[in-house]
Structure formats: structure tokens, C-alpha cells
Design brief:
Blueprint: E1 25-28, E2 34-35, E3 42-43, E4 54-57, E5 66-69, E6 74-76, E7 78-81, E8 95-98, E9 102-105, E10 112-116, E11 123-124, E12 127-130, E13 134-138, E14 144-145, E15 149-151, E16 156-161, E17 165-167, E18 171-174, E19 177-182, E20 187-190, E21 200-202, E22 206-211, E23 221-224, E24 229-234, E25 239-241, E26 243-246, E27 250-254, E28 257-259, E29 262-264, H1 268-278, E30 283-285, E31 296-297
Parallel strand pairs: 1-4, 2-5, 4-7, 5-8, 6-9, 7-10, 8-11, 9-12, 10-13, 11-14, 12-15, 13-16, 15-18, 16-19, 17-20, 19-21, 20-22, 21-23, 22-24, 23-26, 24-27, 25-28, 26-29, 28-30, 30-31
Antiparallel strand pairs: 1-3
């Protein structure tokens, strides 16, 4: 009898990535950098990937900056990122994930997570696409996100920020809507030419917001929650807030902030204090906004 051999179709995850030969979890065990697809670097000895995959890039790296080359698209659900040695001579080894491919965060409908640890200069410079919300936590990092970030599927994707974070790459909506929610009392730095429309929501007791590009806030609303005290420092020549929404918080800082529209969800005294004493740089309102005492309308 002649055997009939049927072709085996590989399972495909988001972004058209074949997941049939990938491990459900992976620990980077090499103390050096290297290619993401090098199975000798992983335990188990297979490249991890797929929806909900747990990836740990937290080996005890040797001294000196290390780079993992994302030489293929990858899907992860949770990721621990950074040197695991908190006390040894290589405790501050900086880790970079770079490469022209894309890192997809997909945790099968639950929040995906990224936990920074180790060096303060850890960074991801590869592009990131979100299929689920992303929760960012762990040690403070001045490296942070240097690649483009966008949504990979319809619906709103929120990046919940629980630690000092830097976003120097561009943030856009992609095929959905992307928003930022700062829930920790630490600094948030935005310096990309951003177009995301989901807004920046600041809900921490005390937070610092640094804006390094005119479009750093995207096209959505800058919302300051009730009881929040926010310091805004504009390090570019100007920053634009498409809409500024107050829920009873306070705003201080320096630099030029152009407010194109304003939604007041608190008492007028908050706005008066904003214009009189809490912003050390000039504040301008476009014609579609309502001026209050201490706020100047653009001439």
C-alpha cells in the first residue's frame, strides 16, 4: 500500500509567526549576549515564544554591556528583563534588546507584564506591538523603550506604568488605540514624536512628567486624577496638550505648555492656581479653550 504523506501545517500566532517549534517558556542562561534564536542560550534548549509565554532575560551577566539581538519576531506574555545579580561585581551590567524585528506582547487576553531589574540603563530598542495591555514595573531605568510602540489588534491597549520609565521611541495607535496610565509616584519621560490617541492618565500621588518633544503627549487627553500632584518639565521648546483634564489634582513645573482645549472636572481654583503659581513657564490656550485667571490666550 502506498503511503500518503500529508504536509504538517505550523501553528501560527500573532504577526504570522510560526509557533510550532517554540518553547512555552524560556530562561536566558548565557552570561553574554547573542542572537535570540540561538537555542544554546536558552533553558530549555529551544527558542521561547507564543501567546502567554514566560521569558526571563535575567541571567547573571558578566561585566560590561550586553546585547541580545532580536533576529526574528518574538511573542511573549511576560518578561523579566535585566541582570539577576544584585550584589556581585557585574550587578550593574546593562542589557539591551535590539534588532530590526518586532517583540509582540500577547498574554492570551490577560495583562502582559514587563519587569525591569538590575541595571538602570537597560533598554529595548526593537519595535513593540501590543495584543494585550502591558504592565511595566521593577527597578528604575533610564534606558527604557527606545523603539516604536503600537497596538497589533483592534481595541484599546493601556500601558500601566509602575516604575520610573523612559519612552524615547514613537508611540502610535497601530490597529487599535494606545494609552498610558501612570499609577506610581515616579518619573515618566516622553520624548518621541507620538500620535497615540488614548491619552496620558496620571493617577499617582506625586509624579514627574518630562516632555521632550512637541508631540510627546500624542493626540489624546492629559488627565490628572483627584489628589495627584504632578510636576511637568518641558525640555523641548514647547509641548502640546490637545486636551487637559483636571479631576482635582495639582500641576507644577517649568517650560512652555500649549493647551489646545481644556476640560475642567474640578473647582475653578485649581485652574487659577495652575496659571498663577504652579506653572513657572508660560501657559497658552488656543481659541477653543476657556481662559481663567492667570492663563493667557494665544495672541
Amino acid at each position: 500500500m502506498k503511503k500518503i504523506i500529508l504536509p504538517l501545517l505550523a501553528a501560527v500566532g500573532c504577526g504570522g509567526i510560526s509557533t510550532s517549534a517554540l518553547a512555552a517558556s524560556g530562561n536566558w542562561t548565557s552570561t553574554t549576549g547573542g542572537d535570540w534564536t540561538d537555542t544554546a542560550k536558552w533553558d530549555p534548549a529551544a527558542v521561547p515564544g507564543g501567546n502567554g509565554t514566560a521569558v526571563n532575560l535575567n541571567a547573571d551577566f558578566t561585566t560590561g554591556s550586553k546585547t541580545i539581538n532580536l533576529n526574528a519576531d518574538a511573542i511573549v506574555g511576560t518578561m523579566i528583563f535585566g541582570d539577576s545579580n544584585a550584589t556581585g561585581p557585574s550587578a550593574l551590567t546593562a542589557l539591551t534588546l535590539s534588532g530590526a524585528n518586532t517583540l509582540f506582547f500577547n498574554n492570551s487576553g490577560s495583562n502582559a507584564t514587563l519587569t525591569w531589574q538590575g541595571a538602570a540603563t537597560n533598554k529595548i530598542s526593537s519595535a513593540i506591538k501590543l495584543d494585550d495591555n502591558l504592565v511595566v514595573s521593577g527597578v528604575n531605568t533610564t534606558g527604557g523603550f527606545q523603539g516604536a510602540i503600537s497596538s497589533n489588534s483592534p481595541g484599546e491597549k493601556t500601558i500601566y506604568i509602575n516604575s520610573y520609565s523612559v519612552f524615547s521611541g514613537s508611540i502610535s495607535d497601530g490597529t487599535g488605540v494606545v494609552g498610558l496610565n501612570r499609577v506610581a509616584s515616579t518619573a515618566l519621560f516622553l520624548s518621541g514624536d507620538n500620535t497615540f490617541s488614548g491619552g496620558v492618565n496620571l493617577n499617582s500621588t506625586t509624579a514627574q512628567l518630562s516632555l521632550g518633544h512637541e508631540n510627546a503627549l500624542g493626540t489624546g487627553t492629559l488627565s490628572i486624577g483627584t489628589g495627584s500632584s504632578v510636576i511637568v518639565n518641558v525640555t523641548s521648546s514647547n509641548a502640546i496638550a490637545k486636551n487637559l483634564s483636571f479631576g482635582g489634582g495639582q500641576l507644577t513645573g517649568s517650560g512652555n505648555l500649549t493647551i489646545e482645549a481644556m476640560t475642567i472636572r474640578a473647582t475653578g481654583s485649581i485652574i487659577n492656581r495652575l496659571g498663577d503659581t504652579l506653572i513657572t513657564g508660560p501657559v497658552y490656550l488656543s481659541e477653543n479653550a476657556t481662559a481663567s485667571r492667570g492663563l493667557r490666550r494665544r495672541q
